[in-house]
Amino acid sequence: MTSLRSFLILLVTFLLMHILANAATCQDCFVHSRAAYYPNSDDKGTETGECGYGIFGATINGGDVSAASDLYRAGVGCGACYQVRCTNSNYCSDNGVTVVITDSGSSHNTDFILSRRAFRRMAQNTDAANSLLALGIVDIDYRRVPCTYPNKNITFKIDENSNNPHYLAFVIWYQQGRKDISAVQLCETQNFECKLLDRSHGAVWTVTPPPSGSLSIRMLFSDDNGDETWVVPVNNIPQNWKPGDTYDSGVQVNA
Fold it and tell me: pTM, whole model, 2 decimals?
């Protein structure tokens, strides 16, 4: 009898630990929070977001973008995608909207400050969207989801302040999948010597001075479970790179 009781206790303990572990690592679970919207912007996002995307940060994902508070994570959260749905059944749709993080900010204990366009897209219809805007701040549920950009490869945009060959800064466009870009290396394609880049702010990566010659950018994609993958683009950055230029990596990452 004692052995049976001990076995049942161990079984129940194991099941509880399994349930708690799954709950702690559930990628598809929604988290409750609040969201506001940019009150003084047009329908799309801001061109001056902390992620450093510039105009791209206002128009990516059709303008369905957001600032984040804790989810900004000192810039690591830039480019991440979240499904955000408001919870008022009178106004809100079931699916809500998918937004890309392009900025840092909070308002009245919110996790998201959406573009007007994204805020309206949480609603069931036009009248409901106007009602949501009138509320200003709403209760939401959110979860991280993979970013998808059909027919788009990861792209590198050279910052306007870069100065070849002394200083190189760039941002990464069309970050795909559900993982973070947690580190970036820049390698000479001739001798394969690499430098680990600094995240100066947001999604802006810098190095002084950059390696010479044609350059290969290596990106480390990682998640909360410790899964890490180095991705090496097919295409290199040419030796004569220029500020303001964009370079197609030739790769998509759907992890």
Answer: 0.88
